[in-house]
Amino acid sequence: MDDHTTMFGSDFDCSNLSSSTLLDYSPSYFTSTDVFMGCFDPIVSPEETDMNPLDDYQEVFDNRLIQAFENLYQGCEVFTDLLVQLWLPVIRHGKLVLTTVNKSFIITSSDNTNLLNYREVSKNYQFAVEYDATEMIGFPSHVFMNKFPTCTPDLRVVAEGDDPRVIYAKKLHLCGCLNLPVFELDGGTCLGVVEVATTSQKINLRDEFENICKALEAVDLRSSEFLIHPKQKVFSEPYDAVLAEIQDVLRSICNTLNLPLAQTWGPYEGRSGTISVIESASYVFDTEILGFFEATSSQQLVSGEGLIIR
């Protein structure tokens, strides 16, 4: 393949790949501690999934998303090491689930083997669209149900229970992951989820987010206002003094226990029910984690999302 390859389609024809390119999904590849192997069904094929669109509107919506991905495909040529894939609700065996099988995707990479493998892994999962459903919960589920995006700057620190694909993401050396809800321009119903995964050490995905938003807006769709926000400095002097004391305490704890990072989260002014990092009350002990700190400092969390407010 070329030094830099961009793939776009509704599903890549894996028959064109050599047998050494795709991941060996046999048990020997994974250790006995990989508890999510039981959730992975490598024998499911698109022809056997009994998947149907929700209604006639779904076909029109799908066509608009295909056009959005074509627009995004042009913009993604400047990025490397990205997988962008679409999750949509379908009826499978009488149940409503989220799937990425036969949905649009883009891969841009100088060596796309790991991203192709993660694409294949994702195609073999279906996720719940309701919390009381019997299906598994994954990143796309949280976004679809809460109508709010999630950004995971470093998948190495994510628990496997948050998404059963995490165990594969780690083995395939994926780093960051971004999931965005898709809405009509004037609607509040989540219609699908755009997922971005990367093997790059770049953990701030703001540029990718902005490109996706532009591609959606071109076909009269949108994502949410998102969790990236301008940094604010609106504290009074007495409050500043308290924050400085908190930072001193965190500095002492990190230095004593060799903890890489301590962050303080507080209410975000201007948006009820959200919190963000208070930089002046946080401390970075390990400079290698600085990128993670900068990425999370530009994000918001809403009620019920993230470890911070559980």
UniProtKB/TrEMBL annotation:
InterPro entries: NLP (IPR045012), NLP1-9_GAF (IPR055081). GO terms for molecular function: DNA-binding transcription factor activity. It comes from the Eukaryota. Residues 234-307 form the NLP1-9 GAF domain. It holds the Pfam family GAF_NLP. This is NLP1-9 GAF domain-containing protein. It comes from Lactuca virosa. The lineage of its organism: Eukaryota, Viridiplantae, Streptophyta, Embryophyta, Tracheophyta.
